[in-house]
Amino acid sequence: MQTVSDYFGSLVFDDRVMRARLPAKVYKSLKKTIDEGVSLDNQVANAVAEAMRDWAVEHGATHFTHWFQPLTGITAEKHDSFISPSPDGGVIMEFSGKELIQGEPDASSFPSGGLRATFEARGYTAWDPTSYAFLKDKTLCIPTAFCSYGGEALDKKTPLLRSMQAINKQAMRVLKLFGNEDVKCVKTSVGPEQEYFLVDREMFDKRKDLVFCGRTLFGAKPPKGQELDDHYFGSIKPRVAEFMEDLNEELWKLGILAKTEHNEVAPAQHELAPIYTTTNIATDHNQLTMEIMQKVALRHGLVCLLHEKPFAGVNGSGKHNNWSIATDTGVNLLTPGETPYENAQFLLFLCAVIQAVDDYQDLLRLSVATAGNDHRLGANEAPPAVVSIFLGDELTAILDAIEADAPYNAAEKTVMKLGVHVLPKFLRDTTDRNRTSPFAFTGNKFEFRMLGSANSIACTNIMLNGAVAQSLKGFADALEKADDFEGALHDLIRRTIHAHKRIIFNGNGYDDAWIKEATEQRGLLNLRTTPDAMPTLLEKKNVDMLTGLKIFTKAELESRYEIMMENYVKTVTIEAQTMLDMTRKEILPAVAGYTKELTETLAAKRAILPSLPAKYETGTITKLSSLLDQIDAAADELEKTTLQIKAIDSVTESAFQIRDAMLPRMAALRVVCDEAEPMTAERFWPFPTYDKLLFGVR
Ligand code: ADP
Ligand code: MG
Fold this sequence. Notes:
It is built from 22 helices and 17 strands. Strands 9, 10, 11, 12, 13, 14, 15, 16 and 17 form a nine-stranded mixed sheet that branches. α14 crosses α15 and α20 packs antiparallel against α21. The two termini are 29 Å apart.
């Protein structure tokens, strides 16, 4: 029998394949490009392309594609076959270095937010050698960046790579000051935990809201929801287990380190976590994981829902972005060390993160802002829209002591002086497992929990890398100048703690009292919705940071703002239109149909014996008739709003109107429809209800 280690990575042109198939010189040169970002010459590219093609063709591939991540949030590919005619009437399989390095997809239909006028539809894809090529359905996929004719980024990978470069540069400056001469580069790593729902495909197909929007727009609360918590870590149902087994195999073949999976809190909700890896690769892998989850689900008669809030009244799905920063020598800079020298370095990197999260709360918030995720953040669900950091009691007490120049450990009576004191050793699990914090320190990494399940992790990591790079830049500027390094370091850490401790909060993030304290006493931001959060992208301090570190140009930021807002507007508008369609074509006729049946029953009763009791019929007819009118009126209101918003030119104004007028009207329509559902006979209801969707997979 084949074991996992036999087939792990079998569809990947990874280091093992490169080493085996590339001439030694080519391999060495490519490694330099991958590890140190040295640019590649044509000869090497040609040799790599040839080896890639041979390997791919041996594995049954017929096509290749530049695989990229345009701003639609999903991945895109345009397939070209390897074939090329040969003079004797046959074909040969061809793939040149040029085809490997650069592609030119007709890109006019990808969102560019005005960066690329349609008449110059050209966009370029450029090979990212740091992420391995892989095979998918007989196609060799080459991870690429995607940019416009003028070199402006039209994707998520380009700024992500730039942000990794920025944090590398600044972290290296700081590390030099601590005497880390052997370190060649610093990389951030990410382990994204991915939540999702599985529903039966037949049921899914019967609901236009799921088909068009990925979430239910109607649905009364079922008799049983998640109140018993009996699903969380519960035993996995056979059909789901088969899906997971199949999924793991597919992911492992692609070299994706799928590690843990379990049931989540809500019924039908599950989670998959991979082992962490370099941010750029983790991002590619997460995109692939989402794609493959959906594909494998279909094979099992299931549909995988990645929407943040597929069902009202039960938990939505998020994604936890576990983030850390490590040297190429294998030192995680967020591990509290055991020697004083390591402690000071750790504390400085910790302070860099604290300052970054405080200074750029808005960027972190907007990096996860979508119409779907608004149903979690800022609603009554974890985490809140207010960004704060959980450090745990122990670390907070240490920072407090440093800030106050007071003894940390009362029994020891020594004042914490960096460089002489030894931090207590943190055991990962002694820091308590706060589940409500949006940004929690978990022993040697930070876990950012605001991401929605459907979000690409690229945006969050761009902002996080950028913000931390900015802190480190300031730190390096200050320390490089200092005559007394230790004194300056101590001072810097104290000052940073003092200036940014408002962002540290170890309590319950769901508590209303916290939101009040955060906004009123601490002055933290509470950007509840996408239209609240998005405009902060263009605030001066944010533009300065992101352009200063060369992560984005001003024009790129402006275009991204447009695209994100447009996406919000389009998403909610489609939802509103779907609601209207379902209401008029399905719900109203169903309720009217049942009302008619009751009327006929009532008439029949009256015909036989007018004195027969008919309280149920008359009562229900009355209530449903009234609801029919209310539903009809609410639909009219929503339609009017939809038309009004369509007439607005400015995307910003449309987004605000959607937040203030359209979403409330959608909610109002839903209330009356959901009221009619439990009063209407089940056989009349036109689509599967919550109980069936949530408990229908066995
Ligand atoms: P949880 O209790 O939150 O599920 P886990 O230990 O299972 O925590 O880790 C969750 C994720 O964090 C996994 O994807 C794991 O690989 C990742 N992770 C662990 N250590 C690091 C690290 N140093 N940097 C980034 N991610 C990490
Ligand atoms: Mg977690």
